[in-house]
Amino acid sequence: MSKKEVLDNASLQRALTRITYEIIERNKGGQDLVLVGIKTRGEYLAHRIGNRLAQLEDISIPIMAIDVTNFRDDVTNHDSDNLGLNSEDKMNITDKNIVLIDDVLFTGRTIRAALDALIHVGRPKSISLAVLVDRGHRELPIRADFVGKNIPTAQAEHIKVFVKEIDGKDAVEIIN
Amino acid sequence: MQRHLILEDGTVFAGESFGAPATTFGEIVFHTAMTGYQEIITDPVYDNQIIVFATPIVGAAGIHAGAYESMKPTIRGMIVHDLAEVSVNRQRRMNLDRFLKQHNIPGLYHVDTRKLIRHLRETGSQKASIVDFADDHAKDQLVATVLTNKQVANTATVKPYANPGRGRHIVVIDFGLKHGILRMLDDYDANVSVMPYTTTVEEVLTLDPDGIVLSTGPGDPRVLPDSVLTLIRVLQTKAPMLGIGLGHELFALANDAELLPLSSEHHGMNHPIEEIVSRQMMYAMQGQGYAVDPESIDRNKLFVTHRDLVDGAIQGLRHRDYPAFSVQFFPDGAPGPLDATTIFADFFDTVEDYVEHVQS
């Protein structure tokens, strides 16, 4: 097994900063903006981006996290109560501009599950997608609006995103 | 030989002559950088200025072919506390004294630079002159002298030229261009076209740029023709833009912000600069006499990305609607810490993103 660091701490911070600026660019004024992180690491990245937006805009943008396990296409029981959203969060989705945030975009199946989950509980005005890493190999017609870094990979390779909150460091590694 | 520095307010400082024995006039500023005198005296940003160095000894590193920031220095004088005598030999073919003689620039050493800088801190920048005798005639001459405000025209290229590479096509609008910027663009293998600041929107767009850089300049941006602001206003909607130094000030003016003269100018590399979004701190060389007035910023157009932690002066701006941003400080690290070179990484990431966005 070999591993290679493709994003170090500083480049990861810069990638999140650039995504933050691009979110501002494409959502005038940050009105009706809601950040939704996909558990586990997407949630932490959503908070990082949310903190950055708060530094710049003096407005607090709602941040929530969803657990899409029950909406995966290899699971049959679609139970919306297990999303990890409370009733207030659910109300917050309708008519909002949602930025869905995940660490790695690969086949697109997780994102599809997240889209289904969100639409199951409300009717957002729009949903866009921000990912830290786009590694290619899509199996569904899904693409990200905000990409931290495009990392072309082989199918067999594994991409591991580390976040300080739970992994003790910020980095992205390719593992063979 | 003893010569003199006279200030517009009548103050006189005596010193020993080095460099050329020329009589010159210029705006006097003091620089607190402790390294990088060669880059500073060849930086077009200091066109027409007399620079006082706060660092006690200058000259010990000689002059090196790889450390020029322009081909011809256009400063009007150099004031130091002490000058390091360095020999010239086969390895080190040039020293500071010879270099200034070649370019007809006078220098003074054994000047009480601590007293001079303390004085300048109180009075702010002013006209000054380096002369043989500090008599009434010389003082009258200085008072009567009107310093040029055509510094951009004096230093910027009049003809377009290319610095070819195999990467993204970057158009640099030259308002006075320090070599450090070209060096940084070279690090990304950019294919660079340098255009005079009198260029037109059509000329730039014909080149099909992937990104646009507004260069560092010297002087007051407000004396440039309005056509420059129109140029920026249009180009910022067409491709990612990075403004540096004067380029930053012009980017601000083009988006309806205003400038204020700084009561204490920034010339050095010891001010911590905060990147607001990440609350991270960096150091970079600064050379600014003006700052963007925070009150004047239209929050629907621009937001502040960087600020100086010593006096709060705005150090970076970004457009709300376009991938256009600017920094007041010099992120090319020539001279200075390399912390801020990531600004170029940000710029090229933005360029890549833009190119992919346009293609898809």
Outline the structure in words.
- The complex is a heterodimer of chains A (176) and B (360).
- Chain A has 176 residues and is an alpha/beta fold.
- Chain A has one domain: 3-Layer(aba) Sandwich (Rossmann fold).
- Chain A has helices spanning 9-26, 41-57, 87-93, 109-121, 164-167, and strands at residues 3-7, 33-38, 63-66, 97-105, 126-134, 146-150, 158-162, 171-175.
- In chain A, helix 4 links the parallel strand 4 (97-105) and strand 5 (126-134).
- In chain A, helix 1 crosses helix 2.
- The longest helix of chain A has 18 residues, at 9-26.
- The mean pLDDT of chain A is 90.
- Chain B folds into 2 domains: 2-147, Glucose Oxidase, domain 1, CATH 3.50.30; 152-359, 3-Layer(aba) Sandwich (Rossmann fold), CATH 3.40.50.
- Chain B contains 10 helices and 21 strands.
- Chain B starts with a strand and ends with a helix.
- The mean pLDDT of chain B is 95.
- The A-B interface holds A 10-11, 13-18, 20-22, 24-25, 28-29, 52, 55-57, 143, 147, 150 and B 275-280, 300, 303, 305, 318-323, 325, 342, 345-346, 349-350, 353, 356, 360.
Notable features of this structure?
heterodimer; A: alpha/beta; Rossmann fold; 5-stranded parallel sheet; 5 helices; 8 strands; 34% helix; B: 360 residues; alpha/beta; Glucose Oxidase, domain 1; 10-stranded mixed sheet
Report the average pLDDT across residues of chain A: 90
In CATH, the architecture of chain A is 3-Layer(aba) Sandwich
Helical residue percent band of chain B = 25-40%
Q: What is the count of distinct domains of chain A?
A: 1
Sheet of most strands of chain A:
5 strands, parallel
Structural class of chain B: alpha/beta
| Biggest sheet layout of chain B | 10 strands, mixed
- Report the end-to-end length of chain A measured between terminal Cα atoms: 6 Å
Helix-and-strand structural type of chain A: alpha/beta
Keywords (chain A): Glycosyltransferase, RNA-binding, Transcription, Transcription regulation, Transcription termination, Transferase
Pfam family, one (chain A): Pribosyltran
Subunit structure (chain A): Homodimer and homohexamer; in equilibrium.
Family (chain A): Belongs to the purine/pyrimidine phosphoribosyltransferase family. PyrR subfamily.
